[in-house]
Write a structure and sequence with these properties.
- Helices cover about 35% and strands about 25% of the residues.
- It is an alpha/beta fold.
- It has a domain of about 200 residues: Bira Bifunctional Protein, Domain 2 (BirA Bifunctional Protein, domain 2), CATH 3.30.930.10.
- An eight-stranded mixed sheet has the order 7-8-9-10-6-2-1-11, sandwiched between helices. Strands 4-3-5 form a three-stranded mixed sheet, with no helix packed on it.
- Helix 3 links the parallel strand 3 and strand 4.
- Helix 4 packs across helix 7.
- The longest helix is centred in the C-terminal third of the chain and has 19 residues.
- The chain is globular and about 45 Å long.
- About 40% of the residues are buried.
Length: about 280
């Protein structure tokens, strides 16, 4: 994702790394297109580094090739495709330690993995999930679409009948209406994991996702609900670069963090430095 897209929203790259984890800082790293396993491995390294205060809070942004993941509480029967069909369609499958059921990731999605120390923010998992939703709801509103929550379910939802525009006189009332509508479609999914109050996994927001791949699963284990995308709602081409900086800005506002762009190369250097002392200690 090009730096200028983030720069337009006040998100400037960090040229010199300053390791002060006491500041309310969150590094934002754009991994680009990356397969699921390396992204998962990177999250595990960052969680360990965050626990030891070797890094501040981090937000990983990426896009995955076609992959289906099953949460730790998910049901295998919610995978509707055979392994043979998945192979034919070039779709990988991974069990995951995140919360939630089954979901699909693929091109045209913004996948975000926040690695945050909630002990320094607020020790409340339900609150944390609601804030992830809120950031995406606010970003969606900037495109004239009123999104909201649905009672008893996680994620971001849009009513398919009134795909409500921000011309509504009462935005909060529109959100409430979305919560109560039976015909709502899911725009973004959330599944998180916490270890000693450090978060991992996160959210997937459909920008221009090929929604046909959701037919391979029962999305999030909910049989009567379908996925949608921002591109489908707007009826025009939408770039991920148009949406990602907005989500980042709103996450910074909500969690009261200074969001700073950091290159993947700089992050890997820092993580290498973190791992080197541990390797010497066990030698």
């Amino acid at each position: 994702m090009r730096e200028e897209w983030f720069g337009r929203h006040g998100l400037q790259p960090v040229r010199q790394m300053q390791m002060n984890t006491s500041e309310k800082t969150c590094w934002v790293i754009d991994l680009g297109l990356i397969t699921y396993q390396p992204a998962f491995d990177l999250q595990r390294k960052l969680v360990a580094a965050r626990k030891s205060d070797a890094v501040p809070d981090v937000l990983l942004l990426c896009e995955h090739p076609h992959v289906i993941t099953l949460g730790r509480n998910g049901k295998q029967e919610h995978l509707l495709a055979s392994s043979r069909l998945l192979k034919q369609m070039g779709v990988e499958f991974f069990p995951s330690d995140r919360g939630g059921d089954i979901t699909y990731h693929g091109p045209g999605q913004i996948v975000g993995y926040p690695i945050l120390n909630l002990a320094a923010i607020r020790r409340d998992v339900a609150w944390y999930v609601r804030q992830l939703e809120e950031a995406m709801i606010r970003a969606t509103a900037e495109f004239g679409i009123i999104a909201g929550r649905k009672a008893g379910m996680t994620g971001v939802w849009v009513d398919d009948v009134a795909s409500a525009t921000s011309s509504a006189t009462n935005v909060e009332a529109a959100k409430d209406a979305n919560r109560n509508q039976g015909g709502a479609e899911k725009l973004a999914a959330i599944g998180v994991h916490l270890s000693r109050w450090v978060t991992s996994h996160g959210f997937a927001y459909n920008v221009s996702t090929d929604l046909r791949y959701f037919d391979l699963i029962v999305p999030c284990g909910i049989r009567d609900k379908r996925a949608t995308s921002l591109e489908r709602l707007l009826g025009r081409v939408v770039l991920r670069e148009e949406v990602a900086p907005r989500i980042v800005v709103h996450l910074g506002e909500i969690f009261e963090r200074d969001m700073r762009m950091v290159s993947r190369e700089n992050l890997e250097e820092i993580l290498q430095e973190c791992e080197t002392p541990a390797a010497h200690a066990t030698a």
